[in-house]
Amino acid sequence: MIYEFKGFIPVIHESSFIHPQAAVTGNVIIGKNVYVGPGAAIRGDWGEIIIEDGCNVQENCTIHMFPGKSMILKEGAHIGHGAIIHGANIGRNCLVGMNAVIMDDANVGDECIVGALAFVKAGMQIPNRKMVVGNPAVIIKDVSDEMIDWKTKGTALYQQLPSECYESLKEVEPLREIPENRPTQEKIYDIFKK
């Protein structure tokens, strides 16, 4: 669902896919090849939200801010299932883990990894290429080239997903039995193992 609010209509590039069960409201600008999953809420009712090219905002994420603020997800930012970004800026090619919370005026540098369930307090400044975990979040180490390569490959899958959704996603009635010739899915990506 795409909503106008107080004269602001979201601007969404035609190559991006917003799931019909997501809500995008007001002063939101979404670039190319962005995926927004079901249940996501991107609320530009009180301020501006910019989501640059190649980002993904997965299922049940919330993006919002205090009145009069502006926030950005830079190119290739990867926002994991259930994460909350409230008035924070997320750097280029970052990974925000599942159910992480990043609070107002925090700045996450480029190519950072924020662990699942982390709580990044308001105003925290995270330099480029750092791994952040915990509640409250702390910087535990630098992000290696190997880690960022793994993250970038995972994000590339999400950058392909919008076109795949346009090509094949459709509402259907469920099957009542498993067909004998049901195909298997290829293993194209794996967890980080170091």
TrEMBL record:
One annotated GO molecular function: transferase activity
Pfam family, one: Hexapep
Keyword set, alphabetical order: Transferase
Xref: PANTHER family: DYNACTIN SUBUNIT P25, GAMMA CARBONIC ANHYDRASE-LIKE 1, MITOCHONDRIAL-RELATED
Protein name (database record): Transferase hexapeptide repeat family protein
Species this protein is from: Flavobacterium azooxidireducens
